[in-house]
Design brief:
single chain, alpha/beta, 8 helices, 8 strands, binds D-xylitol-5-phosphate, binds zinc ion
Length: 225
């Protein structure tokens, strides 16, 4: 069975103790660090840029999954790669020349991801599906942690899984926003591969255990057997 991945989002961590928070993820069963870069333009919020990504790179051995919620991401792809990003995800809605940006990401040696907002149909990815490594389906409107999971994401996961499988594309489907034990199983059984979790991990009494619980969920769909 193909097992799923868990990527805790550092957005919900204590930034006064970033080293400690990164260490928690490092010691845990988590697979990746999910890093949310926000510019105050594509989304209303501002978080951090490549200097912080670079600092986290020095503390982490696990892959850095960098989610760029910024306009004109093509201006920063190389900088984030140099800072240590392993996966660079850009937003469909922020890219006029998405195909070109995907090639640009791949040329750096990073894996290329495309994120779609809740209102963006997965059908719009039809012509680039073969070119990308990962699709990040936003299950909240990007910009903030701690929001409610939008259940309309579930049929989108199913549809995208079907599109990828029919064409034999080894695509990773990541779901981001409002994920916790209450919905993680449904998300996985719909065909997701990567669970991003911010508040359900870092606001938990025991983040290590919260991560372990997300990892322990079994995907029961025959599809993954
Ligand atoms: C939202 C970010 C998410 C966020 C998830 O814009 O992309 O990664 O940190 O946080 P939770 O799990 O709290 O919804
Ligand atoms: Zn994210």
């Amino acid at each position: 069975m193909r097992t799923h991945l868990v990527a805790p989002s550092l957005l919900a961590a204590d930034f006064a103790h970033l080293d400690r928070e990164v260490a928690v993820v490092e010691q845990s069963l988590a697979d990746w660090h999910h890093l949310d870069v926000m510019d105050g333009r594509f989304v209303p919020n501002i978080t951090f840029g490549m200097f912080i990504v670079q600092a986290i790179r020095r503390l982490a051995t696990k892959p850095l999954d960098v989610h760029l919620m910024i306009v004109e991401p093509e201006r920063y792809v190389e900088a984030f790669r140099q800072a240590g990003a392993d996966i660079i995800t850009v937003h469909y809605e922020a890219c006029t020349h998405l195909h070109r940006i995907i090639q640009q990401i791949k040329a750096t040696g990073a894996q290329a991801g495309v994120a779609v907002n809740p209102h963006t149909s997965v059908e719009l990815l039809d012509d680039i599906l073969e070119d990308i490594d990962l699709v990040c389906l936003m299950s909240v409107n990007p910009g903030f942690g701690g929001q409610q999971f939008i259940y309309r994401t579930i049929p989108k996961i199913r549809r995208l899984r079907e599109m990828a499988d029919t064409r034999n594309i080894p695509l990773l489907i990541e779901v981001d926003g409002g994920i916790g034990l209450q919905n993680a199983e449904a998300v996985l059984q719909s065909g997701a591969d990567v669970l991003v979790a911010g508040s359900s991990v870092f606001a938990a009494k025991d983040p290590l255990e919260a991560i372990a619980q997300l990892k322990r969920i079994e995907r029961k769909r025959a599809h993954f057997a």
